[in-house]
Specification:
single chain; 198 residues; alpha+beta; Aminopeptidase; globular
Length: 198
């Protein structure tokens, strides 16, 4: 099973996987709370597209050959985004998230508040695997590919897990707890993790 960086032609599939697998996420369901499932799914697709596009400039999106699993990461340069770029990003969120914008913005601002400033590091923003492929080696392969990048570039990596089970799973890839659970008002806790280069 080959893992590669997604190309422009893959982005619709990437966003479909992310939206379907995060649809019932214990944290994100509080950010996207619209009553109509179809509309909610489309809003999530548009939200993920913003960050997948951002990763083209500041990171990357890993995908497997069957489009069943994706991992979106950012390089340390993400922290160097200008005020103008951040304002443009917020404008995209406002436009694409509609009535969910206030809760989405509160969530993203909460992540920014807790995000460590130093040392410079990579950031795993999203990981999703189709339900039918969970329990296979797909997650292992996605993280193995990412870890190769981290170790080559000699950078640590940070992420937040929305589930305790995910936090437990990623320990096998060299991650450890990075402090107490994060408490963003209106959302369940998230579990920060950290990996040193090896």
């Amino acid at each position: 099973m080959k893992i590669r960086h997604a190309e422009d032609t893959d982005m619709d599939n990437v966003c479909d996987v992310l939206a379907s697998e995060f649809f019932n996420d214990p944290v994100l369901k509080f950010a996207f709370a619209g009553p109509d499932p179809r509309s909610r799914l489309e809003t999530m697709r548009r939200f993920f597209r913003i960050y997948v596009n951002l990763a083209k400039d500041y990171g990357g999106t890993l995908i497997d050959e069957n489009d069943a699993g994706v991992l979106v990461y950012f390089r340390p340069e993400l922290a160097d985004m200008t005020d103008k770029e951040n304002e443009a990003l917020d404008a995209q969120l406002r436009q694409q998230c509609g009535s969910d914008y206030p809760s989405v913005a509160a969530f993203m601002n909460g992540l920014d508040h807790y995000h460590p400033a130093n040392p410079p590091h990579y950031y795993v923003f999203l990981v999703a695997v189709q339900h039918a492929r969970r329990g296979t080696c797909l997650v292992n392969r996605l993280f193995s590919e990412l870890n190769t990048i981290l170790d080559r570039d000699k950078y640590p990596c940070y992420a937040e897990c929305t589930r305790l089970s995910t936090r437990t799973l990623v320990r096998r890839f060299g991650y450890r707890d990075a402090g107490q659970p994060l408490c963003i008002k209106g959302f369940p806790p998230l579990y920060p993790i950290w990996r040193e280069p090896q």
